[in-house]
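JOB MANIFEST
job_type = single_chain_structure
chain_count = 1
residues = 338
[input]
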Amino acid sequence: MASETTKLYIPPALRLISENIAKSGNPLGLTSKDCASWSKGLEIPTRGETILYTGCEYQMTSYVQSLVRILKRVKFDDVSFSTFKTFASIGRKVGVDLMKTYGRVASRERGTYDRLVRIAALTLRRLGMDFAYLDGELYSGALIYEYGFVEEFEKHAVRVTNQFREAGVRRIITLSPHSAEIFQQVYPQFIDHFDFEVAPFVVVIAEALKRTGMELSLPQPLTLTLHDPCHLARALKVTEEPREALKSIKNLDFVEVTSNREMTYCCGAPIEMVYSELAELIACKRVEQLSATGAEAAATLCPFCYSSLKKGVDLSGGKLKIVDFMEIVYQALEEANA
């Protein structure tokens, strides 16, 4: 029979995530300014019936990668963990210079992910949609639910739901598959009358393109394959919408990877905070599969898949370009408008 100590042991990285969500509303303790920096100058309303929900997931991805690099360099133990309440405070353990280095890397990488969220918003506007972005948007809590922090998740879900209701939200366009799954399938089990309409971004875009009948084209020919994120394909059964949208774009030659749709192969991201080396091996394997299609680029629809696959390309020395679905659609829309 396991001892009480064994039963209660929680990996420090997971406790870091849980405590940051409780305190700051997102896994890494980022500020509202950090999460909303992508929206500068777009003048998006902060209240409305339809919202673009980012959950700060794209925005925090660059910091996750920096944190993973630190975790690989430093062994966290239960005694020292008590001082690590936020991303920045880890500097007490690893040294100020190392933290500054990783902070600069994260800051540079953040521009990439902010650009992707900005592109998503501009794409919705190009397609004639009105939407808001909540001031001080809270993370969905998907990670703490997946890692088994059920009580903490339930408390956080109440906070998120109250934020939606206070802002008059009725429809949620989720940028990440993690948020779409947690809102559609998990929140109704914990929150009474969680009756918001939840729509994954890719579904909204595919429906809008079909409805408008717009003829899209890329400026240059591109051979592209698609990596289905597990949460989107397996949990939500959303597999045809991204293919329909991509195949409607002229100058785009779509090729299918062997492991696709519900039989997709993991990118490795779900375990990188705890088993980073194994996560890297999985990412390299998926990159190998995607590269075997002969495609120049592979598109995905999840910030964590995007980041993990880019790492896989770097580690394996491959030439495959990793792009986000929204980049391809936005480029095609820009070409159509031109």
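[summary]
Residues 1-5, 76-88, 91-102 have pLDDT under 50 and may be disordered.
The chain has two domains: 10-203, 214-337.
exit_status = 0
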